[in-house]
Specification:
Blueprint: H1 3-12, H2 21-40, H3 43-81, H4 89-94, H5 97-117, H6 124-148, H7 151-195, H8 202-206, H9 227-237, H10 246-253, H11 257-274
Helix pairs in contact: 3-5, 3-6, 3-7, 5-6, 5-7, 6-7, 9-11, 10-11
Amino acid sequence: MSAVTRVREGVAAFGRLPAAPAAQQLAADAAEAAELRAYATHPDVVALRVERVRAEVDRLCWAGIVLGLGFTMTNVQSFAAAGTPAWSLPWLAAWLLDPTVSLVLLAILRAEQVTARYRVRTGSWTRRAKWFTLAATYVMNTWHSWATGSVSGVVLHSVPPLVVFVAAEAVTDLRDKLTEAVTAAFAEAEQQAVLIPAVKPLASAAAEPEPPKAKRTNKKVSARVSSADYLAKARELWTPEVTVSPAWVREVTGCSRGLSSRLASVLAAEIAEGGDGHEHR
């Protein structure tokens, strides 16, 4: 005898047909959506998403800063070489000036990346060193344009150093705010997880195996018992410590397997709405 036939025989006495396949599919979809929402709003998952955004911000800011400093290298070398013959010793040494300043700046920014993550404020000398290196890069990069009075050259060679300067200041504040966002997101998600109780997926409940017949102690109920009587009996025996499931309904009422899933859904809905299934008696 197939499972469908057993379900139909179990509910035929009550004059009702089992749930349509479309309704069963909707119930399974609802259970899957509830389970997905429970994972999506988990505090650790929410915090992980913010951490990934923080990593993206760091990568983009570092890429912009490195590219900006690389753009200024040629102008700084020209400023330091001051017309010396190409490939001479002073000309070659001039290439070391920009990396010297840039490496100090990058070291400061890297240190601030860690201190900002743990909300540790650095001293005044750290900020002075950062501003000095940025100012030195700007002056050396635009000196020739200022000397020749080239407005377009000043604008062109001012943009990269100023972008580096603004990014260096903004990235520290962004890291600090993203750290606060991680904490706030974790706390908010944790609060919602407490307010919204975890829902046992209907699909797993429906797939729950029927208890062995040897363990059943309930007597076979007469076919004339209505579904309302089964539901009333389940309400009577339910306690707050009990998790409502089709298996539990079958165990305490002795109803059929097909009817137990429907009664479990109705009783669970009553408990969720009223806070206590006994209020619906």
